[in-house]
Design a protein that fits this description.
Elements (H helix, E strand, L loop, with lengths): L1 H6 L4 E3 H6 L4 H10 L2 E5 L2 E4 L6 H11 L5 E2 L1 H8 L10 E4 L9 E4 L8 E4 L2 E4 L1 H8 L5 H15 L3 H10 L6 H8 L9 H12 L6 E6 L2 E7 L4 E6 L1 H4 L2 H16 L3 E6 H6 L2 H11 L1
Parallel strand pairs: 5-6, 11-12
Antiparallel strand pairs: 1-3, 2-3, 4-5, 7-8, 9-10, 10-11
Helix pairs in contact: 5-6, 6-7, 6-8, 7-9
Length: about 280
């Protein structure tokens, strides 16, 4: 029974869950003594037959912080795929004060239903709320990459982030986040974009505005005066069906605005830019 409970929650159970299921406190102590339950936090255990995972670590931290607690900050961003690299230490936002070893706990009251989601079985701050929380500590470049990943992976829009900012007008970093969302902060999101811009500089061509909203959707590069929109197609961000659909919408919207529209790939920008530069010289003349 305990194994079945744990298998639904990354191998993690709480004392309250065990007692509700009919396990006595004495039986809990015996299982702790034999190693069949492994204490992670007070009242939160990992079942011995399950190896720890990132999800198990984060879920145990959230459950240790009580009801309505949510994984937040860089840990939530990592779980949601917004930040890459090694998993950060757990950070949890909870409606009450908590002290939990190894967990950074932030009190925030109230936490509304719109602030949280379940992601990979872990109660987590919603993607827009996570971006608002990240704005306090991330650089503009890193924040822009997180916003880009949010759009690609979760279809998060600037309007959804603005709704969180409207509920939390005193959030630290809000001006920086709004500047990123509106394209006022000049950032590049990928190696492909940096190589593309370097090719333009070497060819003495005018540089575009990058990652700017246009027609309600972000575009990679645009020259508003020349009425030109360019999308850079990397396989990583454009290989899914959702990305394919979004790309076609961007093209339709650009043409509806009266823009010329072009797509260039990694091979165009990095391996042999001859055709790409010839096209751009003609269009930007």
């Amino acid at each position: 029974m305990i194994g079945a409970m744990a298998s639904r929650a990354h191998g993690v159970v709480t004392r309250a869950q065990l007692v509700e299921a009919g396990v006595t406190p004495a039986e809990v102590r015996r299982r702790l003594g034999s190693g069949r339950l492994l204490r992670v936090h007070k009242g939160v255990y990992r079942v011995g037959h399950r190896a720890p995972s990132v999800e198990a670590t984060y879920l145990a931290a959230v459950w240790a912080c009580g009801e309505r607690a949510l994984l937040s900050g860089p840990a939530a961003a990592h779980l949601l795929g917004l930040l890459k690299g090694a998993p950060p230490a757990p950070q949890v936002t909870a409606p009450t004060e908590r002290v939990v070893a190894g967990v950074e706990v932030r009190r925030c009251r109230p936490l509304g239903d719109a602030d949280g989601i379940g992601w990979r079985g872990v109660p987590t701050t919603s993607v827009p709320r996570t971006l608002v929380d990240l704005a306090a500590t991330l650089s503009a470049d890193t924040l822009a990459r997180a916003c880009h990943e949010a759009g690609v992976l979760h279809r998060t829009t600037p309007r959804q982030v603005d709704a969180v900012l409207a509920r939390r007008p005193a959030s630290p970093g809000r001006a920086k986040l709004r500047a990123v969302l509106r394209g006022e902060t000049k950032v590049t999101l990928s190696v492909l974009e940096r190589r593309f811009l370097a090719r333009l500089r070497d060819a003495s061509l005018p540089l575009p505005q990058t990652n700017r909203p246009a027609g309600g959707r972000r575009v990679d590069c645009c020259w508003p005066e020349q009425r030109l929109t360019v999308e850079l197609d990397s396989y990583r961000f454009h290989s899914s069906r959702h990305a394919w659909e979004q790309d076609r919408r961007r093209e339709r919207e650009a043409r509806a605005r009266g823009d010329e529209f072009r797509r260039f790939t990694y091979a165009d920008a990095v391996e042999d830019p001859t055709y790409m530069l010839a096209q751009l010289r003609a269009l930007l003349a």
